[in-house]
C-alpha cells in the first residue's frame, strides 16, 4: 500500500501500457498512441469537430481557512499520532463544531485495535507485539466552501514464531514483522459544519448511485489483467460476488477534480489487499453535469462572508491522472537506447494529437550523432547512449497544456536536455502564447522584467561563455530574454503560469519561471488580470 502526501495527485491508478512490436520502425511505434496521425503544423486553426464540450468550470475558489496538523502527545517510541484543526471561519460555532468532530474522530481511531480485514488474525496472530502506531491527517480538497480530509492509520507488529515467542535476530531486529493500515475520510460543509455524504456531491435528483456504479464497474473492467498489458500497477479491488452497488455511506474523499472511493473491511462485497485498504479515483469529468461540487461558482464571490479575512484565491482545475492514457515504447538504434513516453487526455482532438505525434518522433540526425559519439567508447565500458523523449499533457476545462522534454546522454559530460511548453485553447485549438494570458492593458512585460531582476538578485546571473554578464551586455540580454518569453510557449500549473527560464546555470541547463496566481508583485499576478479565469 502506498501513502501519498500530496492528495491533489494521489491517484493509485495507472493505466495499462502497451508494448509495440519490435519489428516496427521505431518512430512509428510512438504514433500508435494516436489514430490517424499525420503531419501537424504550428497552428491547427479552428476545426473543433472533435472537441467535447466541457461541463467542468475552469477554476475553483480556495477556502480562506487554515488547516493545520496538530501532533498528539507521544506516549512511547514508534507511536506518532496527529489530528487537524481549522481556523479562519467567521462563524466560531461552526468552526468549533468541525474541530470537535475531527478531534473526537481522532480519539476514536487512537483507541481502535486491529482493523477487521478478512484473515487479519492469521496475519497478526495472538502473541504479536505492537511495535508502533501512526495516525496522520491530511487535506484532500479545500475549496468552494467544502473541506475533505483523511486520517491514515498504520499499525506495525512483530510476529511470534512457531513456539509463540517474539524474537530479535543478532542485529537486534525482529525476525518477522507485519503492517496493516486503514483510512478514514471526513468531508465537511463549511457553511453549516455538517458532514457531507456521497449524495451531497451530486445535483438534486441525480441518480448518483447508478452513476458511481457505472464508472466503478468500468474502472474495474478496464484494469483487469490480460496477457497484452505490462508494466502497470495492479489494482487490488476485486468483486467477490454478484455486483450489487456501492452504498450511500460509502467511504470517500475528494479533490478539486476527482472523487476517491475507499475500499476496506466496510465494503465486504469487494476484496482488497491483505491488511490494507485501496483507493479508486473517479474523475469528475466523467460525471458531467450531474456533479455539484462546483456550484458555488454560480454565486457572487462578494456575497461570501464565511471567512474572517483574505481575498478569494482561484486555482485552475486539472483532470487527474486517472483520466489520462499512458504509453511507453522502447527500442535500440545501433548503440542508442531510445525511450518514448507520453501521457495524454483520451479525448484530445485529433489535430492536437497530430502535433504531439511529431514531437514524439525521434530525430534521425540526433541518433546519428549519438552513434558517432559512441564510437569513442568500447561496448564494455559504455554500451549505449540514451535518447529519451517524454510528453506530458494536462487538461483543464478550457485548456490542454503540455511539457515536452528531450534528453540525450552519451557519457563523460556529453548530456543535454531540452524542454518546451505548449498550451492550446480547447475551444479554438489555437496555441496560447504568454501575452494571450492577460487582459487588455495589463503590463505583462514589466512583470517579466521584475521576475528576471529578482532571479538575478537571488544569485542566478546571466552568463556569457561562463562569465556573468554586466553593463550593456546585461541590459541587451534582458531585453532579448523578455522578447523570447513573449514569443514562447507556456505551461499551466493549477496555481501558476510556467515559462522556460532564460536564466541558465553554468552547466547550460534551463529552469523555469513560475508566475503565481493571486500573489501580485514580482512573484505573480492577481487572477482578475488573467484571461484564464474569464467566464467568456
Number of strands: 25
Structural class call reads alpha+beta
Q: Cα-atom Rg, whole angstroms?
A: 27 Å
Q: Looking across the biggest beta sheet, what order are the strands in?
A: 3-4-5-6-7
Q: What fraction, in percent, of the residue positions are helical?
A: 10-25%
Q: What sort of overall outline do the alpha carbons produce when their principal axes are compared?
A: globular
Question: First CA to last CA: what distance?
Answer: 44 Å
Description:
Strand 22 and strand 23 form a beta hairpin. The chain has a 5-stranded mixed beta sheet with strand order 3-4-5-6-7, with helices on one face. It has a 5-stranded mixed beta sheet with strand order 15-16-17-18-19. The longest helix has 20 residues. The protein contains 8 helices and 25 strands. The two termini are 44 Å apart. With 536 residues, it is of the alpha+beta class.
Amino acid at each position: 500500500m502506498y501513502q501519498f502526501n500530496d492528495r491533489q495527485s494521489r491517484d493509485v491508478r495507472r493505466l495499462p501500457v502497451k508494448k509495440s512490436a519490435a519489428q516496427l520502425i521505431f518512430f512509428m511505434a510512438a504514433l500508435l498512441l494516436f489514430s490517424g496521425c499525420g503531419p501537424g503544423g504550428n497552428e491547427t486553426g479552428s476545426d473543433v469537430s472533435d472537441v467535447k464540450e466541457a461541463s467542468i468550470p475552469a477554476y475553483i475558489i480556495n477556502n480562506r481557512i487554515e488547516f493545520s496538523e496538530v501532533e498528539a502527545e507521544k506516549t512511547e517510541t514508534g507511536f506518532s499520532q496527529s489530528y487537524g484543526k481549522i481556523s479562519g471561519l467567521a462563524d466560531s460555532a461552526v468552526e468549533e463544531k468541525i474541530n470537535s468532530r475531527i478531534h473526537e474522530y481522532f480519539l476514536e481511531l487512537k483507541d481502535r485495535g486491529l482493523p477487521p480485514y478478512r484473515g487479519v488474525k492469521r496475519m497478526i496472530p495472538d502473541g504479536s507485539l505492537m511495535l508502533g502506531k501512526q495516525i496522520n491527517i491530511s487535506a484532500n480538497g479545500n475549496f468552494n466552501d467544502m473541506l475533505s480530509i483523511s486520517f491514515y492509520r498504520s499499525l506495525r507488529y512483530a510476529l511470534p514464531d512457531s513456539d509463540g515467542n517474539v524474537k530479535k535476530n543478532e542485529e537486534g531486529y525482529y525476525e518477522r514483522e507485519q503492517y496493516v493500515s486503514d483510512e478514514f475520510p471526513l468531508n465537511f460543509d463549511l457553511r453549516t459544519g455538517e458532514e457531507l455524504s456521497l449524495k451531497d456531491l451530486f445535483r438534486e435528483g441525480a441518480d448518483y448511485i447508478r452513476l458511481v456504479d457505472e464508472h466503478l464497474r468500468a474502472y474495474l473492467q478496464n484494469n483487469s489483467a490480460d496477457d497484452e498489458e505490462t508494466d502497470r500497477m495492479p489494482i487490488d479491488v476485486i468483486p467477490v460476488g454478484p455486483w450489487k452497488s456501492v452504498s450511500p455511506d460509502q467511504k470517500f474523499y475528494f479533490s478539486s477534480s476527482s472523487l476517491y472511493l475507499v475500499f476496506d473491511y466496510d465494503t465486504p462485497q469487494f476484496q482488497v489487499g491483505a491488511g490494507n485498504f485501496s483507493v479508486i479515483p473517479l474523475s469528475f469529468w466523467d460525471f458531467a453535469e450531474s456533479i455539484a461540487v462546483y456550484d458555488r461558482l454560480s454565486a457572487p464571490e462578494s456575497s461570501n462572508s464565511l471567512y474572517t479575512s483574505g481575498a478569494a484565491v482561484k486555482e485552475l482545475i486539472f483532470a487527474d491522472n486517472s483520466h489520462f492514457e499512458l504509453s511507453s515504447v522502447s527500442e535500440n538504434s545501433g548503440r542508442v537506447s531510445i525511450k518514448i513516453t507520453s501521457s495524454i487526455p483520451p479525448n484530445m482532438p485529433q489535430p492536437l494529437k497530430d502535433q504531439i505525434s511529431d514531437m514524439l518522433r525521434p530525430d534521425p540526425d540526433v541518433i546519428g550523432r549519438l552513434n558517432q559519439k559512441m564510437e569513442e567508447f568500447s561496448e564494455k565500458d559504455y554500451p549505449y547512449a540514451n535518447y529519451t523523449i517524454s510528453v506530458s499533457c494536462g487538461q483543464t476545462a478550457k485548456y490542454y497544456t503540455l511539457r515536452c522534454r528531450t534528453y540525450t546522454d552519451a557519457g563523460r559530460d556529453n548530456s543535454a536536455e531540452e524542454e518546451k511548453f505548449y498550451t492550446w485553447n480547447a475551444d479554438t485549438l489555437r496555441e496560447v502564447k504568454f501575452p494571450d494570458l492577460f487582459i487588455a492593458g495589463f503590463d505583462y512585460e514589466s512583470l517579466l522584467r521584475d521576475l528576471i531582476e529578482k532571479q538575478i538578485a537571488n544569485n542566478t546571473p546571466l552568463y556569457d561563455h561562463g562569465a556573468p554578464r554586466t553593463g550593456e551586455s546585461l541590459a541587451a540580454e534582458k531585453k532579448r530574454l523578455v522578447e523570447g518569453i513573449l514569443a514562447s510557449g507556456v505551461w499551466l500549473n493549477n496555481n501558476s503560469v510556467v515559462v522556460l527560464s532564460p536564466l541558465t546555470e553554468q552547466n547550460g541547463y534551463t529552469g523555469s519561471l513560475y508566475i503565481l496566481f493571486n500573489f501580485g508583485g514580482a512573484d505573480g499576478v492577481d487572477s482578475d488580470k488573467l484571461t484564464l479565469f474569464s467566464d467568456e
